C-alpha cells in the first residue's frame, strides 16, 4: 500500500469541511480566504481549484439595534431627522419635568396633611382617653355592669 491509499482509507470526509461554522475560534480569519488561481489558457478549472477571493462573513460581529437604526437615519431627509430629534428631546424633557413636578406636589401634600391633621388626631385621641377615664371611674363607683351599659338615660323629674 502506498501513501495515497492510506490517506483515502483514514479520511472520514471531515477534512474537506475546513470552512464550516463549527470551526474553533482559534482559527485565524486568513484561513477563510480562498486564494485566486488563474487558469492557464486552454485548461478548464477543476473541481478542486479555488474560484476566487471569497470570505465567510459568519465571524463578523452582528450589528446592534442602535447601530442599525443610526445607519438607517441616512435614508431620511434632514428635516425629518431634525423634527424627530426635536420631538424626542422635547418629550424626554417633558417627562422629566412632569416627574419633578409630581415629586414636589407629593411632598407638599404629604407634609401639609401631617401638619394639618396631626393636631386633630391628637385631640380625638385625647378625647377618647378622657372618655375611658370617666368609664373607669364610673366602673369603680357603680360596679362593672353600669360602666359597660354606657351613660344612664336622663330620668323625668319627680313631682313634688
UniProtKB/TrEMBL annotation:
<keyword id="KW-0653">Protein transport</keyword>
<feature type="compositionally biased region" description="Basic and acidic residues">
    <location>
        <begin position="20"/>
        <end position="31"/>
    </location>
</feature>
<dbReference type="InterPro" id="IPR005683">
    <property type="entry name" value="Tom22"/>
</dbReference>
<feature type="region of interest" description="Disordered">
    <location>
        <begin position="1"/>
        <end position="60"/>
    </location>
</feature>
<keyword id="KW-0496">Mitochondrion</keyword>
<keyword id="KW-0472">Membrane</keyword>
<dbReference type="Pfam" id="PF04281">
    <property type="entry name" value="Tom22"/>
</dbReference>
<keyword id="KW-0813">Transport</keyword>
<keyword id="KW-0675">Receptor</keyword>
<feature type="compositionally biased region" description="Polar residues">
    <location>
        <begin position="10"/>
        <end position="19"/>
    </location>
</feature>
<comment type="similarity">
    <text>Belongs to the Tom22 family.</text>
</comment>
<dbReference type="GO" id="GO:0005741">
    <property type="term" value="C:mitochondrial outer membrane"/>
</dbReference>
<dbReference type="GO" id="GO:0006886">
    <property type="term" value="P:intracellular protein transport"/>
</dbReference>
<keyword id="KW-1133">Transmembrane helix</keyword>
<keyword id="KW-0812">Transmembrane</keyword>
<keyword id="KW-1000">Mitochondrion outer membrane</keyword>
<protein>
    <recommendedName>
        <fullName>Mitochondrial import receptor subunit TOM22 homolog</fullName>
    </recommendedName>
</protein>
<feature type="compositionally biased region" description="Low complexity">
    <location>
        <begin position="35"/>
        <end position="54"/>
    </location>
</feature>
<keyword id="KW-0811">Translocation</keyword>
Amino acid at each position: 500500500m502506498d501513501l495515497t491509499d492510506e490517506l483515502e482509507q483514514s479520511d472520514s470526509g471531515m477534512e474537506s469541511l475546513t470552512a464550516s461554522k463549527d470551526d474553533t475560534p482559534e482559527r485565524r480569519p486568513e484561513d477563510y480566504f480562498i486564494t485566486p488561481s488563474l487558469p492557464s489558457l486552454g485548461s478548464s478549472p477543476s473541481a478542486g481549484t479555488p474560484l476566487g477571493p471569497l470570505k465567510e462573513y459568519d465571524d463578523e460581529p452582528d450589528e446592534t439595534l442602535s447601530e442599525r437604526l443610526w445607519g438607517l437615519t441616512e435614508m431620511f431627509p434632514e428635516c425629518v431627522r431634525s423634527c424627530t430629534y426635536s420631538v424626542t428631546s422635547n418629550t424626554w424633557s417633558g417627562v422629566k419635568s412632569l416627574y419633578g413636578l409630581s415629586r414636589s406636589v407629593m411632598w407638599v401634600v404629604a407634609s401639609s396633611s401631617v401638619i394639618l391633621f396631626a393636631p386633630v388626631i391628637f385631640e380625638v385621641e385625647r378625647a377618647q382617653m378622657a372618655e375611658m377615664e370617666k368609664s373607669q371611674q364610673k366602673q369603680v363607683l357603680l360596679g362593672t355592669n353600669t360602666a359597660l351599659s354606657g351613660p344612664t338615660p336622663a330620668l323625668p323629674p319627680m313631682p313634688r
